[in-house]
Amino acid sequence: MATSNIHEHGATVAHAAGHHHEETFFSKYVFSMDHKMIAKQFLIAGMMWAIIGGLFSVLFRVQLAWPDETFPLLETLFSNWFDSGKLTTDAYYALVTMHGTIMVFFVLTAGLSGTFANLLIPYQIGARDMASPLMNALSFWLFILSSLIMLASVFLPTGMASGGWTIYPPLSALPQASSGSGMGMTLWLISMTLFIASQLLAGINYISTVLNLRTKGMTMFRMPLTVWALFFTAIIGLLSFPVLVSAAVLLIFDRGLGTSFYLSDIYIGGQALAYSGGSAILFQHLFWFLGHPEVYIVILPAMGMVSEILAVNSRKPIFGYKAMIFSILGIAVLGFIVWAHHMFMTGMNPFLGSVFILFTLLIAVPSSVKVFNWLATIWRGNIRMTPATIFALGFVSLFISGGVTGIWLGNATIDIQLHDTYFVVAHFHIIMGIAAFFGMFAGVYHWFPKMYGRFMNETLAYIHFFITFIGSYLIFWPMHYLGMSGVPRRYYSFNEFKAFAEYGDMNILITVAAIIVFFTQFIFVINFFWSMKKGRVVTELNPWKANTLEWTTPLERIHGNWPGELPTVYRWAYDYSKFEDGPDFIPQTVPMTEEEIQMEKNAHH
Amino acid sequence: MQLLLITLALVLVFVVIVQVGKAVELISVIKEEDDRREETSRSVAFWFGITGFLLLIFMAVTGYYEYGKFLPVPASEHGVWIQELITVTLIVTGIVLLITNFLLFFFSWKYRYRKDRRAFYYPHNNKLELIWTVIPALALTVLVGMGIDKWFKIFSEAPSEAIRIEATAKQFGWYIRYGGKDNKLGPRDFTLVNAENELGVRWNDEASQDDFLSDEIVLPVNTPVYVNIAALDVIHNFYLPEFRLMMDAVPGMPTKFWFKPTITTEKMREIKGDPEFDYELACNQLCGTGHWNMKRVVRIVTEEEYKVWFAEQKSYYEQNILAKKEEATPVAPAVAADSAAAVVDSTVTE
Predict the structure, then answer these.
(1) Model ipTM?
(2) pLDDT for position B77
(3) What number of helices (H) and strands (E) belong to chain A?
(4) Residue A602: which region, alpha, beta or left (left: phi > 0; alpha: psi -120 to 50)?
(5) Predicted pLDDT at B329
(6) Number of neighbours of residue B197 by Cβ within 10 angstroms
(7) How far A24 CA lies from chain B's nearest CA (Å)?
(8) Are the Cβ atoms of B107 and A365 closer than 8 angstroms?
(9) Interface check B41 vs A, CB under 8 A
(10) Would you give the DSSP letter of residue A107?
(11) Burial of residue A336 (number of CB atoms within 10 Å: 0-12, 13-18, 19+)
(12) CA A36 to CA A451: how far, in whole Å?
């Protein structure tokens, strides 16, 4: 029943796509409703935000490395934020806040999911487009609107929001507590509310597309892992983002209407405020109820793409396909009941703390299953070291290195020592910052030929990889040691404390590495735009010899994806090197042979 | 000018890199796809392997060095317990980190692409999946068990003889209040807060009348201390790195932490070989532009020294409230010494 419906739907669109209708510049490039174009829009917007977010981090890293130097050059460039050659404290905290906000939400949520969910879900399940192309376009334009509002706060005389990306009240609620808590925070809250609306429109669309528009034969357990990962990501987002809206709305009430949801017993600027009965900790519960699943929203799409890319380029099936799906499910479910591990030091009931220790450390089990399965996938493979592969392998290394330290921090007893120190900064940057970026780079290098019909330059990609990989470890590995030595995060300068000032050399090393890594990313950007116009042209349909459906679409990227009927799927996506001879891959559209059907039957008995 | 030069230099570097990339690409396109892939896979896998090898050495050596040299000596009883857990966790996770990373780099190099080879079709093995689900689960059970056990020990009831002190944070500093001779901290009431009584202490309660404020936190070694932690304006965090003590200071929600310091400042100076060393109190929750500059010195002394110091302290109430009341009744009292000198109409506090 359902299958026949899908088929009919497919046929009508195919008919429509057959007619050439005039597309204007606006309908094609700007207000496009084609999933492929929207994916590109998200990718390029994400790249712009990444450059801004990265630049911000370089500016505050300069302050941390050389707290006593002056930088007249930087002052000429960023006169708002520098005063007599030094970054001001207000600007420092604003940059820290915006770096986090931009990277977590605009780059690694919108940029990553927005690009690859849009590109890959319809392609890999054999659909002509998203379930609702209009909602999809709306989602992008709401994201742009939210971006513009956030960007506007850069130019405010009172400065951008500066209470940290976690915007804990009362600091974020009271303009008298910090200059960034004035108009800057108002714009932050409006921007984030729009951003969440954009994410919800996108998420509903991804979920309904995966559930309803799979082509004939594409059962759930034949979907590539990318689609599974993006599917779970969308579900997590749909369940957790609304909670952040509620947190933001209550904060807006506290700021503007004099309510006391988060505020109580406050004496500031020589004045006792009339708030009473609120709980500052309530905000943290609401925030982290999104905030923690958010890290899985960031990392799951990267995991999905890495699984796919490693299988294709090892010429081997992904090891433990179902285990991979159930480990994503496990991570997604557990991800909702670990949020308070961000709050171990808020004075919570110790019993509550112990429950969160248990669940938090439990999440390491599905995570390690994934790592072992990736290792088993490349074991005895025939690994083509393409740029995508090497970034995927780098992802696995970073995921391990960032993952093990989660076992430290998730254990509240150790967290007493390490909470809010540089150890935490190291941990989450490696596992959800750099690792997610690596997943994103892997995805771009792998699917660029599909997006633009050209290859990216491989030599530049390798240079990009090695500098970024080594540089990232040089930035973030020493931070573990800073943290273990007690150095707290979010300090403008360590000079006031003897114990923290000792590590000046390490901070210089970190900053130098950060600057190098930041500028190295321009190799990627140049490669990206240059290859778009001048790269080596893709001449064969399936340059990576992959099994998934996107490589059965014609080279010319048409609206509706397939010119005739939609392809029919007969097998899973991972039949690589299944037989001794013949090609070492069997696309999903190839029917099973008698022999294979027999093999499968025998396996089940 | 300087800016122009830097920009030019950067542009030049990028142009060179891009040209190199183009040239290599042009040469390689001439070759057969398979040969080209085999060649690049070999060199990339080689450099990836070398990078991985160096990375593992870097991690192992710096980790070992850090653990021995940098990790501050724990100066409290529970700090030692945390250290034990860190040691066990470091060993477990360190082994996993090095082995899995090694396998990743080794496999990447060993199984690199060769055009005449074929990968091994190996889609799943339920026994293996079971093994690598159960083993991490068991290891984690041990860590969870140890962690929860120590966690409850650290947050157990404070011994009744514990010295009572209170740390109240504000933008950007601390008030340190001692329970005084009766070792009881007088009750506070937010509605009483004003410029002369910034903590809002209820003076008519007897327990509050012998309380005193101190610039430094002075404590005797090997005696339990019960710290009440509070904040006036925004969230702060009471952070004593050497004592492994950290707790948020939340306006409207008092928190607490008890601990037992085990090493005097004198002794720690010897251990560190630094005669200038002092324990320091820091803020560890972003609280505004002065967050990084909220230091107080903590002095751990012997029991005898503490008694001498304690005897010298004068009640805040007698010094500042009572004395001024007698001087200037019934006119409103002067501003307290430590306050920001903002005169507040006491009716505002409602």
Answers:
(1) 0.92
(2) 95
(3) 21, 4
(4) alpha
(5) 55
(6) 22
(7) 34
(8) no
(9) yes
(10) I
(11) middle
(12) 7
